[in-house]
Amino acid sequence: FIMAKQVEQLEKEKKELQERLKNQEKKIDYFERAKRLEEIPLIKTAYEEQRVHDMELWEQQEEERITTLQLEREKALEHKNRLSRMLEDRDLFEARLKASRRTVYEDKLKQFQERLAEERRNRLEERKKQRKEERRTTYYREKEEEEQRLREEQLLK
Predict the structure, then answer these.
(1) pLDDT tens digit string along 9-51?
(2) Can you say whether residue 105 is alpha, beta or left, with left for phi > 0 and alpha for psi between -120 and 50 degrees?
């Protein structure tokens, strides 16, 4: 009987504990919901303020970017105008440089053409000698073969 009472008491305490937890959970839920309902307008206003601030910052940075680009363009134009005075000197220097390089190129080309012509003459002369020597050896060989054939014919007779 005492055991049954103890079990019953434990179950009753367990139910009370669960009910208290449920009530506490509901209170927390209501509290969180109320907190969120109060926070939503604050979050929206904070978002709007941040958006306005960001927009102002972007516009400021964009203006700075545009002014720096304008300054860079002005400097580039000044630089171009300053360098355009040197354009004739540059062209003259370029022309002289090209002329000197052209003469060097033409000299080297002339030397190459001369060496090429000399090499061709040498090779032609060498080929001529070689062919002459081949014809000579062929002639003597054929002559010798003819003599050999004639001797053999004589021997056979």
Answers:
(1) 999 999 999 999 999 999 999 888 888 888 888 889 999 999 9
(2) alpha
Q: Choose among 49, 67, 48, 70: nearest CA to 59.
A: 67
DSSP state of 157: -
- Give how far Cα 155 sits from Cα of 48, 142, 146, Å: 132, 20, 14
What is the C-alpha separation between 131 and 13, in angstroms, rounded? 129
- Residue 90: both structure tokens together: 């540059």
pLDDT tens by residue, 53-92: 999 999 999 999 999 999 999 999 999 999 998 999 999 9
Rounded CA gap, 29 and 48, in Å?
28
How many residues are recorded in the chain?
157
> What is the sign, positive or negative, of the torsion defined by CA atoms of 119, 123, 126, 128?
negative
Q: How far apart are CA 106 and CA 102, in angstroms?
A: 6
